[in-house]
Structure formats: C-alpha cells, structure tokens
Amino acid sequence: GGLANELAPNAPLPREKRAVSKPTTITVRYTNFPEQAKVAFDAAVGIWADLFPSNVPMTIDATWSNPGAGVLGSARPGNYHSGFTNAPDKDLYYPSALANAIAGKDLDPSSAEIVARFSSGTVWYFGTDGQPSFGKYDLVTVVLHELCHGLGFLSSDTYDPYSGVGTLDRPTAYDAFARTVDDKRLSDLPTPSVELGRALTNTLYWGGPLGIAANNGIKPKIYSPTRYDDGSSVSHLDESTFPSGDKNSLMSPQLDAGEVIHDVGPIAAAMLEDLRTKPPAGAVTALPSPPR
After folding, report:
1. What is the spatial distance between Cα 156 and Cα 166, in angstroms, rounded to a whole number?
2. C-alpha distances in angstroms, 169 versus 35, 172, 234?
3. CB 174 within 8 A of CB 235
4. Which helix (H) or strand (E) holds 12?
5. How far from 273 is each of 89, 109, 144, 174, 214, CA to CA, in Å?
6. Who's near 242: CB < 8 A, 6+ residues apart?
7. Residue 288: count of CB within 10 angstroms of its CB
8. What is the mean pLDDT of residues 6-33?
9. What's the pLDDT tens digit per position in 228-269?
10. Residues in contact with 218: Cβ distance below 8 Å, sequence separation at least 6, in sequence order
11. Would you tell me the crossing angle of helices 35-51 and 139-151 to the nearest 10 degrees?
12. b or e along 126-162 (b: 16 or more beta carbons within 10 Å of the residue's beta carbon)?
C-alpha cells in the first residue's frame, strides 16, 4: 500500500490498553539501513509486537532503497496460504504472518513473513518522540502503517482503467470482509469482470463485527474512489471519513510531512482481529461468468 500526502498526530497507545500480554517475537533483517533508521523501525515493530498476538516468531526483511518518486515505503506479505490448519475459510488466502498466527506454526520457514522497502531519498525524521522538524516525514509512522499491510490489511485486487475490469485471482481474507453497499463480498463477485471493477470504484464498507463495533456500530468505510487509485484503493480506510487528526487515521492512504501517528487506532486493530475469524456470508451474487 502506498502512502502519499496526509495523516495526523496521535499519542502512543498506552501499554495497559494493548491486546497482548506476551509480545510477539519479531526479528528484522536489515539491508542498507542507516543505524538511525533502524531505531525508528524497531520502535514501530515494538508497537506491533504488543498488538499482534502470535506464538510463531516473525521475520521482516527490510531494505533501504530508492523505490521511485512519491513512494515513502511499501510492505507485502512474504507469502500467502490457504487451506492450512485452523484456517477460518479454506478458500481464502491469508498473508504469512496472519496464517502462521492462526495455524500456530510456521507454514513457510524459508521465507520472511513481511518484505518491506523504504525510501532512501526521503527527508526522514528518525526520532521516536513524535516531534519531527519542519518538512520531515516521521519514519515510525510510515513503518507502522506499512507493516499493517504486511500483517493482512490488504486486498489482492487489480483494476484495468481502460476496460473497467476488476480481478481478484487470489482473494484474501480482507477481500471477504470488504462489502458493497448491497452487502456483497468482494471475494464472491465474478473475476475478472466489469461487475467487480464497478465494486472496486464505488462505496465499500468493512463487514467484520469487531471492526463495526470499534466504529460505534457503524460499518467502517473503505477507501474506494470512483477513479481507481493504484496502490491505495480498497486496502485503506477512507481518507475523508478518517482524516488527519482522527484516532483511526493511520490506515487512511495519505500522509503529510510533519504528521505523526504512533497509534494503530481501534478500528484497524479490530479489523485485524476480524481477519482471524470466518467472514460472515454476503448477499447472494449472480452465477459466475464463464471461465476466461
């Protein structure tokens, strides 16, 4: 998931409010990282170790490189797994860290659970006190956001703007919780299809009960602008609903220089918990299109 232009300050989440009594063991293998950047990265990892319960140690491969203009950082799962022991839904794909946590064992010992890259060309603030000087991006905030994607906060969708066709070749658990306004699950829509493409560029909500409860009983709105935003659409909370300053703004798609968020927010934390459960059934869809 890409970060671009807008987020906001929040205080760190107090330890007594965090969900895990025993922190998850997370090892980071750094490539080309400056020592100062490692300190900020480790601070974000520590927050997730307290929030993401798993009895299986996790490895993150983190590279300091130049990914191109306008990209602060990115993170992806090392692998995806389906049909494993205790899988809530055998037909869906679960990112490595989440699948391991659910299965209680390392399903792919040869691979890192998360693969991350961060921009060597960005003017970063490496401190952990949330007080960046003017014009600098807070690295702890960006790492916290990107690791959330690597832990499971992401769709596997693709969209062709010329044909309007959307594709979900390997629907993730996240895709099964993402709902259209008429309560169809993204993962149930025919793929590839224009119907799925329309869903990706229209209003989407989160259908998981824990995420809804964390939003005071209202389905959290997902970022799905009518003009598909490659790298941001679907895999974020809605920017206008959760703008800068909102306690749930970490997982909206935009970040400004100088903005600080060291709190995952109750909705994103609850959504990751939803992903460990079987997605509720969605509204019935039409018969699938003929295979292509």
Report:
1. 11
2. 39, 9, 15
3. yes
4. none
5. 15, 24, 17, 11, 11
6. 248, 249, 251, 252, 267
7. 11
8. 63
9. 999 899 999 999 999 999 999 999 999 889 999 999 999 999
10. 212
11. 50
12. bbbebebeeeebbbbbbbbbbbbbbbbbbbbbbbeee
CA 156 to centroid of chain Cα atoms: 11
Rg (CA), the chain: 18
Environment class of residue 18 by beta-carbon count within 10 Å: exposed (0-12), middle (13-18) or buried (19+)? middle
pLDDT of 215 reads: 98
Give the pair of three-digit tokens for residue 278.
């079987």
Query: Which pLDDT does position 288 carry in this prediction?
Result: 54
Q: Please check whether residue 289 is in contact with residue 193, taking contact to mean a CB–CB distance below 8 angstroms.
A: yes
Contacts of 157 (CB under 8 A, 6+ apart): 166, 167, 168, 175, 186, 196, 200, 233, 234
Question: What would the two tokens of residue 158 be?
Answer: 């693709």
- When the pLDDT of each residue in the chain is averaged and rounded to a whole number, the result is 90
- Residues 168-197 have pLDDT tens digits of 999 999 999 999 999 999 999 999 999 999
The b-or-e profile of 69-96 (16+ CB within 10 A means b, else e) is eebbbbbbbbbbbbeeeebebeebbbbb
Residue with tokens 């170790």: 49
Q: How far apart are CA 120 and CA 118, in angstroms?
A: 6
Q: Encoding tokens for residue 108? A: 């792919």
